[in-house]
Predict the 3D structure of the following.
Amino acid sequence: MLVAFNLRAAIAAVSPVLPEIRADLGLSASTAGLLTTLPVLSFAVFAPAAAWLGHRIGLDRAILYACLVIAAGTVWRVAGGAVTLLAVTMVIGAAMTVGNVLGPVVVKRHFAARAGPVMGLFTAFLILGAAAAAALTAPLAAVWDWRIALAVWALLAFVAALVWYRATRGRRLPAQSQVEPIRPAVHGLWRNGVAWGITTLMGAQAAAYYAMTAWLPTLLVDEAGVDLGTAGVGQALFQVMGIAGTLLVSVLIRVRSSQVWLAVTIALGWMVMPAGLLVWPAGWPLLTLVGGTAQGAGIALALTLVVLRAHDSSVTNGLSAMMQLVGYLIGAGGPVAVGVLYELTGSWVVPMTVVIGLAGSMALSGMIAGRPVTVGAPPDRA
């Protein structure tokens, strides 16, 4: 949970102080946008390398090093100018990718019998870290400045590294406690329908989430007629309610052996907010609550399905890398696509229709990924 808390916090801390960063460093709007886009691209680009690192040096050391890099990078990126800020943000994103990919592998290895609840807590703390950073960075910047406000989040990453080191220091693990050598079946994941179902679910979820995260305040101003401060409240509700969604999934994931019903329910919940804001914008408080719960439930479901469907931790490693490589590449395009469509049409109807379509894709992919089958089992046990 401590590791998960740090897998988004340093990124989420940037947006609240972005105007101060731009003014101090003279960043253009497009360059400033890279501060939020680069980490998402890192999640995709470095996913295979993260899986390789876990296999090469073991889960314990890979996650320890990732926490230390996040801590060091969080301080380093504010010590220079624009180039340092952008370059080190990419490094932080790469370190976070290690936790993204190997977190489910740790759960599969050590908590397989309780995968649903543990993955729910993992995802809840991931969202909690982002929410805390988004809420507290601006007040910290008001007391000190934006550089210190961003740097203080290194303390939590260092605490996570320290606790992880103390928990794993000197223990002698049996060979199977590390990620097993990758078997031929794992290489076949890219031809496996269930693996692609999980990957597509993740991609649709990520694209919808990042699109709504980027554009929800503007949408609320345009459609509901609220001011920017109130729109910020709507954004906060959308993010914080994700915690409730992750915890709900941790409880409901084991109700049935199949998670098809849960995937479809979450997809329907995802449709409520974009559709509702077009036809009933005055109901934005309720709609953001529903949408926030759905987005938290969606990411929790995608990550938990990796653990539930994988035959062993080697498969979990490969499947997690595949899902995040493709999923976050799709996710990075969500805000761009919605922004372009809004600019071209001058209306939110087409962009929100795209988000509704992404929710429909979640339902369809969830029907495939949610079936109680095992991915990557050896031929004689498949």
Q: What stands out?
A: The CA atoms of residues 203 and 261 lie 19 Å apart.
